[in-house]
């Protein structure tokens, strides 16, 4: 820890590990077996649950609440007041705006971005990604969108409105993938997949 700057009031559980050239702000509380990488900045009043991992080159905003087993892989940026529940994973390069809620066991692929304002320059917060959701690499989620549990968003998708029904969504903007229709489609049949 000699190459890192850690506020003296940091409270940690057992087996805490931190890399080099990392800054940890005031009032942080970390559980057992927490690991923080190198060249990372942790804002004030951040809480990390047991077994949480924060990778290299992350910028973690003030007041983040991350549950047990959360993985923030690397180059993650979160704004103030985000909540990431138990078992969620954010892959390399993900960006969260203020007050985003990521529910239990959600998975955000590399370079997912939650937006914080509209095309009219209105700031909006409160994006919610439901339990067990899978958000594909490079996807964008519009400001204050609510995504229900058990939704899969295909890679590079754009979610521009609330998703209230579980399922698979693809495209720009995303639309539900009608699997039963796809299996009968020309692309599927001509692709040689139909038996």
For this structure, the quaternary state is single chain
Distance between the termini: 61 Å
User: What is the C-level CATH assignment?
Assistant: Mainly Beta
Q: From the coordinates shown, what is the CATH architecture?
A: 3 Solenoid
Instruction: Name the helicity range.
Output: under 10%
If helices are DSSP runs of H or I spanning 4 or more residues, what is the number of helices?
A: 2
Give me the strand/helix succession.
Answer: EEEEEEEEEEEEEEEEEEEEEEEEEEEHH
What's the pLDDT, averaged over the residues?
91
Which fold name is given in CATH as the topology? UDP N-Acetylglucosamine Acyltransferase, domain 1
Strands across the major sheet, in which order? 3-6-9-12-15-18-21-24-26-27
What is the CATH homologous superfamily assignment? Hexapeptide repeat proteins
Gyration radius, in Å: 19 Å
Largest sheet: 10 strands, mixed
Total discrete domains: 1
Q: Name the structural class.
A: mainly beta
* Morphology: elongated
What is the count of β-strands?
27
Approximately what portion of the residues adopt beta-strand conformation? 25-35%
Description:
- It is a single chain.
- A ten-stranded mixed β-sheet has the order 3-6-9-12-15-18-21-24-26-27, with no helix packed on it. The protein has an eight-stranded parallel β-sheet with strand order 2-5-8-11-14-17-20-23, with no helix packed on it. Strands 1-4-7-10-13-16 form a six-stranded parallel β-sheet, with no helix packed on it.
- The protein has one domain: Hexapeptide repeat proteins (UDP N-Acetylglucosamine Acyltransferase, domain 1).
- The mean pLDDT is 91.
- The protein is mainly beta.
- It has two helices and 27 strands.
- It is elongated.
- It has helices at 179-182, 186-190; strands spanning 5-6, 11-12, 17-18, 23-24, 29-30, 35-36, 41-42, 47-48, 53-54, 59-60, 65-66, 71-72, 77-78, 83-84, 89-90, 95-96, 101-102, 107-108, 113-114, 128-129, 134-135, 140-141, 146-147, 151-153, 158-159, 167-170, 175-176.
